[in-house]
Design a protein that fits this description.
This protein has 14 helices and no strands. It is mostly helical. Helix 1 runs antiparallel to helix 9, helix 1 packs antiparallel against helix 11 and helix 6 packs antiparallel against helix 7. The longest helix is centred in the first third of the chain and has 25 residues.
Length: 269
């Protein structure tokens, strides 16, 4: 099993990536940012589409956006599509322009925070998400998003307090439980992380990202066969194997994988 020290750098890097992915999903789930635009994506919300599926739609959405850049639903769709394609700077530019036109709109501020976080601008993202929140009627998605940004900024205890507040507002919500689990991965407490992630994955509405985070936490403990089995529930066998191979390669860069093999060999002798 990996010690906290041996998994620290790799685990933190992967956990931060996973937290950012769930942050994007949770903020995208707020209000109108999940709107569809007529025939685009055959009525499917952009943030639920794969990179391959969205590829052909980006140009289409872009043309509609260019003809009417102040159209809020279209601009939100276009920004989300650009993020899926990895074009974070362009997505941020779209949202910055929209935020100027809608300076007090809750959905726009939430999506603007999403774009800022995707670009690594976590403090401005935090400000935008907080401005989008309404204290008298808090949105659990925004509470969880704020917590995930705080985790990225290293404010662990404040982040966990907010995760638990989000769970009070939305009990057993898998995305919040998953974010909380990944917070423990960042700290190197893999056992606690696995507990929360298993709880998240057991929820009936848990999605692929939640289960992949559980596979990550299990893999970071050296249980690669189990991690691959968990990953295979959501991916093709080839994709699952590729994910686990990547994780092994990352760990090998720090000799962690060699340490695991040596420990296993000594136990067998």
């Amino acid at each position: 099993m990996l010690t906290n020290r041996s998994m620290n750098a790799t685990g933190k890097r992967l956990a931060r990536m996973a937290l950012l992915t769930l942050l994007m999903a949770s903020v995208a789930g707020c209000g109108a940012s999940r709107m569809t635009t007529g025939s685009i994506g055959r009525g499917k919300a952009v943030d639920t589409m794969s990179t391959g599926a969205i590829g052909g739609s980006v140009d289409q959405i872009g043309r509609i956006y260019a003809s009417d850049p102040n159209n809020k639903p279209v601009a939100l769709q276009y920004a989300s599509a650009l993020q899926i394609k990895g074009q974070t700077d362009q997505s941020l530019a779209v949202m910055r322009k929209l935020a100027i036109g809608y300076p007090k709109d809750r959905d726009v501020l939430a999506a603007y925070g999403k774009a800022l976080a995707a670009s690594g601008q976590f403090q401005p993202a935090l400000d935008a998400v907080r401005r989008a929140q309404t204290p008298e009627y808090p949105d659990w998605k925004l509470v969880s998003a704020e917590a995930a940004i705080l985790d990225q900024l290293g404010q662990t205890q404040d982040a966990r307090s907010l995760y638990r507040k989000a769970l009070d507002l939305k009990p057993n919500e898998p995305s919040v439980l998953s974010n909380l689990g990944m917070s423990y991965v960042l700290e190197g407490d893999l056992k606690s992380a696995e507990t929360y992630l298993r709880s998240a994955a057991s929820q009936p509405d848990a999605d692929s990202r939640v289960r992949q985070n559980l596979a990550l936490a299990v893999g970071l403990q050296g249980r690669f066969d189990e991690a691959e089995q968990i990953a295979s529930q959501e991916l093709s066998p080839e994709q699952a194997q590729a994910n686990v191979s990547y994780l092994r390669g990352m760990l090998a860069q720090q000799n962690a994988w060699n340490q695991i093999k040596a420990d296993d060999k000594s136990k067998k002798n």
